[in-house]
Structures are given as structure tokens and as C-alpha cells.
């Protein structure tokens, strides 16, 4: 289990995390200017947060719809029967190892236990991945696949700029 970063995170640390979550390209200089925390302290704070595993990774948000050969994404929900003494962890570890799986979450509720996002080159690739690799696992009782047709917002970023309102010319 990952260790916690203190009991209560101070406001400055929280502010730095929120700024980096909004824009991972911000430099310590940028953050220092925005928060008035000395630059050397920002560098130490970021290093400490990385070492503690709180900052896991830096990534870009890609609009794959604008790329010539886009990926197909789907959410897959699964209902599982638990293995005694392991809970969901053993199955989650196994599913996480597939490179096609982009995220995996434990859900509350009665219908499904786990949900993951899967990526493939076609709907057929995704469907075969689910039927061949996931549905065949002994603990999996049921699957439900939902293909993503369009992404409007990803990680807080609006993926399409709104069209400008153009007033129609009216003549009498």
C-alpha cells in the first residue's frame, strides 16, 4: 500500500498539485510566480510529491479524433465472483497488465463491480479483446461494453472549441 503524504496536506501543496493537474507543462518558475512560493521550494515540493508516489506521471491529452488513424475506446463493466481471501485485487492486477486497458476502477452498486477503459484500432479489436481476454476469466460473470462515439471533455479539457454565434442578417 502506498504511504500517505502526511495527515493533512497544506494549502500550498494542494495548490501546486492542482496547478500541475491542470497543466503538467508548468515549470517550477511558472508555479512560483502563480503561488508566490519560492522556486527552490516548489522544486523540492514536486520532487517530494514524486518520491511519495502522489505525482504518478505526466501526460498529454490527445484529441485522437483529429488524427488520421484514430483509436477506438470503450468502457467495459464487469460483474465478478470474488476469490476467497483476495477480494478484487488479484483480478484487478491481472486486468491491469493488458496494454489495451487504459484505466480500471472499482465501482459501487449492484450491477457491476469493475469498470475499465480499453483502447483498440477498431471496434472489432475491442470486441475480440473483451470476449477473448476478459470474458474468459474464471471470476468474470458478466460484461457490458459501451463504445465511445465522441468525447466532449477529457480530464477537465473541452475537446472541441464552441462555434461562434453568428447573427443572421434580417432585411425587411
From TrEMBL:
Superkingdom per UniProt: Archaea
InterPro entries hit by this protein: Dimeric_a/b-barrel (IPR011008), HTH-Siroheme_Decarb (IPR050684), Tscrpt_reg_AsnC-like (IPR019888), Tscrpt_reg_AsnC/Lrp_C (IPR019887), WH-like_DNA-bd_sf (IPR036388), WH_DNA-bd_sf (IPR036390)
Transcription regulator AsnC/Lrp ligand binding domain: residues covered: 78-151
Annotated Gene3D superfamilies: 3.30.70.920, Winged helix-like DNA-binding domain superfamily/Winged helix DNA-binding domain (1.10.10.10)
A Pfam family hit: HTH_24
PANTHER family: HTH-TYPE TRANSCRIPTIONAL REGULATOR PTR2, TRANSCRIPTIONAL REGULATOR, ASNC FAMILY
Record's protein name: Transcription regulator AsnC/Lrp ligand binding domain-containing protein
Amino acid at each position: 500500500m502506498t504511504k500517505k503524504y502526511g495527515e493533512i496536506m497544506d494549502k500550498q501543496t494542494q495548490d501546486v498539485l492542482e496547478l500541475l493537474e491542470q497543466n503538467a507543462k508548468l515549470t517550477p518558475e511558472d508555479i512560483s510566480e502563480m503561488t508566490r512560493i519560492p522556486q527552490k521550494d516548489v522544486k523540492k515540493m514536486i520532487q517530494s510529491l514524486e518520491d511519495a508516489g502522489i505525482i504518478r506521471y505526466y501526460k498529454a491529452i490527445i484529441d485522437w479524433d483529429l488524427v488520421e488513424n484514430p483509436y477506438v475506446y470503450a468502457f467495459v463493466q464487469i460483474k465478478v465472483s470474488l476469490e476467497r481471501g483476495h477480494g478484487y485485487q488479484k483480478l484487478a492486477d491481472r486486468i491491469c497488465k493488458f496494454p489495451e486497458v487504459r484505466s480500471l476502477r472499482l465501482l459501487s452498486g449492484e450491477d457491476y463491480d469493475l469498470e475499465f477503459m480499453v483502447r483498440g484500432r477498431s471496434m472489432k479489436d475491442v470486441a475480440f479483446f473483451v470476449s477473448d481476454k476478459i470474458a474468459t476469466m474464471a471470476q468474470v460473470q458478466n460484461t457490458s461494453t459501451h463504445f465511445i462515439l465522441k468525447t466532449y471533455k477529457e480530464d477537465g479539457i473541452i475537446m472541441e472549441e464552441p462555434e461562434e454565434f453568428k447573427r443572421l442578417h434580417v432585411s425587411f
